Amino acid sequence: MTASVSGSSKDRVLIFDTTLRDGEQCPGATMTLEEKLEVAELLDTMGVDIIEAGFPIASNGDFEAVSLIAKQVRRATVAGLARAISADIARAGEAVRHAARPRIHTFVSTSPIHLAHQMRKSEEEVLEIITKTVTQARNLIEDIEWSAMDATRTPIDYLCRCVEAAIRAGATTINLPDTVGYATPDEYRAMFRAVRERVPNADKAIFSAHCHNDLGLAVANSLAALEGGARQIECTLNGIGERAGNAALEEVVMAIRTRGDVLPYETGIEATMLTRASKLASAATSFPVQYNKAIVGRNAFAHESGIHQDGMLKNAQTYEIMTPESVGVTKTSLVMGKHSGRAAFRNKLEELGYSLADNQFQDAFERFKELADRKKHVYDEDIEALVDQNIATAHDRIKLVSLHIVAGTRGPQRATMRLQVDDKIVIEEQEGNGPVDATFNTIKALVPHEAVLELYQVHAVTEGTDAQAEVSVRLSADNRSVTSRAADPDTLVASAQAYLGALNKLMSRGARLHAQHAAE
Ligand code: KIV
Ligand code: ZN
Questions:
Q1: Most buried residue, 10, 334, 348, 452, by CB count within 10 Å?
Q2: Is 3 part of any domain?
């Protein structure tokens, strides 16, 4: 089965986004419910065909997120992941059942190493499991995707038998993942060709690629899979995902668009939304985008060397294979400042791809005014940091009210902090080995917790000594790590806010923190 678009000579490739599942699964990338809903809405508007919204059996929070996304998304298919276990499949079916287009995505390992050490099952037993679980899923929902976990290390004869069984039991999409990121493009292409040629009922399913980036080959392998007959690619925004990540959605989409001469396919993605989507995913997960990241990195369209700049001025095509505008990079037309009013601010937000509700707009505008009072020029990056932070903190239980620091060469450094915890104001003063340590010690005294600080990172949002500092903090507790980012012209305020943001995320995930003073 292929997915083609009438009136086009190109085959349609379905884009299956798993930012909210495989992406969110990687350490530190946890998103709140509100962040997940926002990402899902953007993916839907952008033209993603299938949104994998989560793993409903994993926790009540995951179940709730998948159910709400299923109810909210109107255009894309919404998939819920399930292991080959009856309870998982029932829970996934329950979570997606209100979607306009629901899908259950169920998977089982097929490689000898997984069968021997993880599953402790024989090949025949796994074949029976496939038939049983796919049949169960198909009785709940019509659209079933089945994945052969570790397909690329599975002997081809056995892989073919598994695929045949899954299709016979009702799977309509067959995903052959390179789970461990081991395959090369030639091998991956050949695997799809062989399976599609040898499995008698292969024409009844769409084949899908799902590649991890351990050797940096995820996008190359995904594109090779298309040549082998796959017509669905599973990918994530900014390539986030387990270990080295998954194939990056923006790279897959732009490779297909830019190299139509050798890749005769098309996707339904509105490419001008790629930059906005990348920024939203980065803000929601607090994972920074590497500067030289293809398509969406800060330097992806920057030309530094004299020869390149000279060529660009004469003809942009000398060094540019796609335009920044085609992926939604807007040229800064208007630098904002303290004299900019509501209309200019609203205009700027629209230009940056935000559509805020009235109360969100009001909050963002007030914060913009505060920032503009402290900083002469407010750049696009400042506004993005500010709005993303506003959205991320809207539902926080712990909020920073004020922070006063005593720092300098003569210690001890001291922090006095006032927090709002739910509807109570609490205050505390602590010393530390430097102002950051004093700030974090004060938070710990106000909100006692066992969370461990795994990462503390600072960088400037723009250039200049009055630039906002953007701080990332990663905390882990109860086997879960979360990252949060905050920006402020004062590095210590940004540090406090980032730390509190991470605590709020942990709390929303049910971690045991004691807002002790608030409970008094
Ligand atoms: O990488 C993988 O094999 C997966 C499956 C669950 C599809 O993520
Ligand atoms: Zn995966």
A1: 348
A2: no
Buried b (16+ CB within 10 A) or exposed e, 348-360: bbeebbbebeeeb
Q: 391, 408, 436 — which closes off a domain?
A: 391
Q: Given this model, what pLDDT does residue 54 score? A: 98
Residue 83 tokens read as 């292991």
Ligand 1 in reach of 177 Cβ (< 6 A): yes
Q: Please check whether residue 235 lies inside any domain of the structure.
A: yes
Asked if 162 and 257 sit in the same domain, the reply is yes
The CATH number of whichever domain residue 435 belongs to comes to 3.30.160.270
| Structure confidence at residue 515 (pLDDT) | 53
Residue 502 lies in a domain: yes
Write out the H or E segment, with its range, that includes residue 465: none
pLDDT in tens, 227-281: 999 999 999 999 999 999 999 999 999 999 999 999 999 999 999 999 999 999 9
- Which residues have C-beta under 5 Å from ligand 2, the single-atom ion? 22
- Cβ-contact 114, 143 below 8 angstroms: no
Helix (H) or strand (E) holding 360, with range, is helix 358-374
Residues 503, 476 share a domain: yes
Q: Check if 210 has its Cβ closer than 6 Å to any atom of ligand 1.
A: yes
**What is the rounded distance in angstroms from the CA atom of residue 146 to the CA atom of residue 133?**
10
Output the domain CATH number for residue 63. Answer: 3.20.20.70
382 and 428 belong to one structural domain: no
**Residue pair 77/101 in contact by the 8 Å Cβ criterion:** yes
Is residue 22 within 6 Å of ligand 1 at its C-beta?
A: yes
| 174 within 8 A of 207, measured Cβ to Cβ | yes
Q: pTM of whole model > 0.85?
A: no
Q: Which ligand is nearest to the CA of 109?
A: 1
362 plus 230 within the same structural domain: no
Q: Does residue 91 line the site of ligand 1, with CB under 6 A?
A: no
Residue 239, pLDDT score: 98
Q: Which of 179, 191, 213 to mutate to test the pocket of ligand 1 (most atoms within 8 A of CB)?
A: 179
User: What is the domain extent for residue 173?
Assistant: 11-285
Q: Which ligand is located closest to the Cα atom of residue 178?
A: 1
Is 517 annotated as a binding-site member?
no
Low-confidence ranges of the chain (pLDDT < 50): 4-6, 516-520
Number of domains the chain is built from? 4
Do 493 and 359 share a structural domain? Answer: no
Reported in sequence order, the residue ranges of 308-381 that DSSP labels E, i.e. its strands, are: none
Are residues 246 and 269 located together in one domain of the fold? Answer: yes
Query: Relative to the alpha carbon of 149, which ligand is closest?
Result: 1
For residue 511, the model assigns a pLDDT of 61
Report the pLDDT value the prediction gives residue 471, as an integer from 0 to 100.
92
Query: Is residue 513 situated within a structural domain?
Result: no
Query: What is the structure's pLDDT at 518?
Result: 42
- Whole-angstrom Cα Rg for the chain: 25
- Asked if 309 and 224 sit in the same domain, the reply is no
441 with 368, same domain: the answer is: no
Cα 109 to middle of ligand 1, angstroms? 9
Supply the pLDDT for residue 520.
Answer: 38
